[in-house]
TrEMBL record:
This is Amino acid/amide ABC transporter ATP-binding protein 1, HAAT family. Keywords: ATP-binding, Nucleotide-binding, Transport. It comes from the Bacteria. GO terms for cellular component: plasma membrane. It comes from Paracoccus alkenifer. The lineage of its organism: Bacteria, Pseudomonadati, Pseudomonadota, Alphaproteobacteria, Rhodobacterales. Residues 268-295 are annotated as: Disordered.
Amino acid sequence: MIEVHDLHRHFGGFRAVDGASLKIRKGSITGLIGPNGAGKSTLFNVIAGVLAPTSGRVLMGGEDITGLPPHQLFHKGLLRTFQMAHEFASMSVRENLMMVPPGQSGETLWNTWFGRKRIAGEERALRARADEVLDFLTISHVAEEKAGNLSGGQKKLLELGRCMMVDARIVFLDEVGAGVNRTLLMTIADAIIRLNRERGYTFCVIEHDMDFIGKLCDPVIVMAEGKVLAEGPADSIMANEAVIEAYLGRGLKNKVKAEAEEETLFGESHGFQPGMGDEAGAGGDGLPARPLGGM
């Protein structure tokens, strides 16, 4: 659905995105991970039209959308959320949802004078649709609450709900788990999975929580220093030495490797076999089976 070809975004001499190329399959939930400063959010911003690329191309369904502004991409079904939720704080949760669909009759002065019946009919339909979204996301109990009073996790659910109020084809979620407690994070994960499986939404997700990524995403794309470093299933990505090095640094990786070798030599000298006993749950490189957990 999305193809990125040799994309660059420079800020003066700093190359935030430096020749990234990737594909996001239609109907997938693709994870995008990498250390801080890897260029993930900048890549999102370029794809979603928030930033213009320095060079390179972005295609959506074969159409060149490079540099199109966000409002045009919105009408094409490409939506992007941010790490910090952008709700209308003084409006109710339901009102936040109802105002999303574009082209409403009440937006023109003429219709407010002469099209009140049409406006009333649209508002009833929008209210019903908003209530359906709230039920789907299990937050109907806060429908009348001001959006500014919601918790961090509820605000992230509200952002998902706003995506559901239009015919989204692909949604880019930037650190959807930031500031969210574990219970609500799993609710968000379940909602994403249901939207993907039941309604055909395609997602690309930036997240540092590898348990969350592992639950949702296939494939997982890794960025480092503005480039794509690796791509594959979550389990293989977490065992990839280049990925481990990008997160932990060469020095720490070598330290962990040296400690693993020391333990192996100690075990052999005492008649133990590598990979047995307390080390049976470790990965083949001497690291825990989920070496990137808690990123």
